[in-house]
Amino acid sequence: MTNENCFVRKSNNAEIVSLLRCTVNRHFKYTFNVPNEETETTAISKEFRQEKAKFVYSNPNYVKDAHVFTGRRNRNDSYYTNLTITTLMATGNNVSASITLQMMSGGDFRVSQKLCDIMKEAWIVNFMRAHSDIDSTCPFPPGTYHIFNMVLPPKNMPIPMVASDYYIILEMYLTKTKEQIAKLTSSLRYVETKWKKP
C-alpha cells in the first residue's frame, strides 16, 4: 500500500485505526545526505514548521482572554506555539474537542472526543505534563490555563502525517448542543533546511 493510500477523508474510528496501521513506520522528521557533490559536507533536514496560529473564535459565555502566538527565539531555532485561555465553567465530558487536518493539496480527516476521555490517552497526559500547567485530573475547574513551547505536530502524537502542507483546525464545543466554545487554526509547512556538517 502506498503512502497516498494511507490517507483517508472524513475518517471514522475504524478508518483511523487502519490509517495508523498503514503508516506506523512514518516519522515526523528525516535527516539524510544531499545527493550531490556536497554530500560529504552538507546535510538536510525535512520537517514540519508550524505557522500562523490564531484564535478565530472564542465564545464569551464560556471563555475569555484567549491568546495564541507562534514564533521562534532566533533564526536557527524551531518554531513554538504558546497559548493561554481562561475558562468560565468547569469542563469535563460536557465539552468535546476535535482536530481536523486538512492537506493543502486536498484531503482531510477529523478526530473528535469528549474532554475527559481525551485525558485518558497516555500521550496526551505526557504532552500536557511537558508543555502546560494543566493538571491531568478531569474535569477541570474554571481558571486560566497555559500551553507553552508546543511543537506541532507533537512528537509523541500517534496520528501519522503524510509529508505535506496542512491546515490545522482545533475546536472545542458543548457535547450535547454542539455550541462552539473556541476555534483555533494553524498551518504546517513541510520544509527543507540545509546546514554544513561540523
List keywords for this structure.
198 residues; mainly beta; Ganglioside M2 Activator Protein, Chain: A; six-stranded antiparallel sheet; three-stranded antiparallel sheet; disordered N terminus
Short description:
The protein has 198 residues and is mostly beta strands. The protein contains three helices and nine strands, in the order αββββββααβββ.
Structure description:
- The chain is mainly β and 198 residues long.
- It has a single domain, classed as Ganglioside M2 Activator Protein, Chain: A (Distorted Sandwich), CATH 2.70.220.
- The chain has three helices and nine strands.
- β8 and β9 form a beta hairpin.
Q: Main beta sheet: strand number and arrangement?
A: 6 strands, antiparallel
What is the average of the pLDDT values? Answer: 77
Assign the CATH class. Mainly Beta
What value does the Rg take, in angstroms? 18 Å
CATH architecture: Distorted Sandwich
**Span of the ends, CA to CA:** 38 Å
**Poorly predicted residue ranges:** 1-14, 16-45
Please estimate the helix content: 10-25%
Annotation field: number of helices: 3
Strands ordered across the widest β-sheet: 1-2-9-8-5-6
Total beta-strand segments: 9
Roughly what fraction of the amino acids lie in strands?
Answer: 35-45%
The quaternary state of the protein chains shown equals single chain
